Amino acid sequence: AQKITQTQPGMFVQEKEAVTLDCTYDTSDQSYGLFWYKQPSSGEMIFLIYQGSYDEQNATEGRYSLNFQKARKSANLVISASQLGDSAMYFCAFIRISSGSARQLTFGSGTQLTVLP
Amino acid sequence: GAVVSQHPSRVICKSGTSVKIECRSLDFQATTMFWYRQFPKQSLMLMATSNEGSKATYEQGVEKDKFLINHASLTLSTLTVTSAHPEDSSFYICSARAAKYNEQFFGPGTRLTVL
Fold first, then answer.
1. pLDDT tens, B33-88?
2. Contact at 8 Å (CB) between A82 and A15?
3. Which of B34, B43, B91 is the closest to A108 by Cβ?
4. In degrees rounded to 5, what are phi and psi of residue A30?
5. Kind and range of the H or E element at A94?
6. CA–CA gap between residue A62 and residue A65 (Å, rounded)
7. Do residues A66 and A75 make contact, with C-beta atoms less than 8 angstroms apart?
8. Per residue in B7-34, pLDDT tens?
9. Around A100, how many Cα atoms within 13 Å sit in the side-chain half-sphere?
10. Choosing among A45, A46, A91, A95, which should be mutated to test the B contact, i.e. which has the most B CBs within 10 A?
């Protein structure tokens, strides 16, 4: 079974600064993907960014970028120019992509990010 | 992006009653739907995976007779918590995936409180 590790239960960042949220994974699969989701206190899961294992370039979506280091099996999320509205729980999730796979997501334990004014 | 709705958003019930939660994909056909449970300050735990027209596949430790899942159409899945007890109080989230896509679209969640 895949294991997803987020080692930072809580992080603080000053407004307008950049912050990196760590995510490592353990898999023997060759074809897989990594997602990052944001969950504010309301509970909704907001998709941020996706990286496929065969994508040669790191994914970027606006202020979000994914620092994908395949050999190290890490997929860290970088948020640039933090805003107060970025305060939320952030989850890294792994998906196995193979023929017949149910495409289930395995979530990390999450990182609670607090942006300070 | 695709929209998934969940109803109700919040429910409070007495111990011993059954509660049904609906998950709908509003603008796409969901060949697969997933049900998660999330306790406060914890991660999402997958409860079961359901494919339209077939029985749900439950994760280890999830009682299928306790948590009844029905995926009768490509746009609707329901989770029924039978004979609910206080320990079933949790945040239940569904997600839906269309065929050939990896991304899951999440519903807004249902907060269940069992008194």
1. 999 999 999 999 999 999 888 889 999 999 999 999 998 889 999 999 999 999 99
2. yes
3. B43
4. -95, -30
5. strand A88-96
6. 8
7. yes
8. 999 999 999 999 999 999 998 999 899 9
9. 0
10. A45
> In this complex, is the C-beta atom of B93 within 8 Å of any C-beta atom belonging to chain A?
yes
Would you say B35 and B94 are in contact if contact means Cβ atoms under 8 Å apart?
A: yes
Beta strands, E only, B39-89: 44-51, 57-58, 67-73, 76-81
Mean pLDDT for the stretch of residues B90-103:
89
Give, in order, the Cα–Cα distances in Å from B44 to each of A61, B21, B34, B50, B101. Answer: 24, 17, 11, 17, 21
How far apart are alpha carbons A80 and A6 in whole angstroms? Answer: 19
Cβ contact B103–A105 (<8 Å) = no
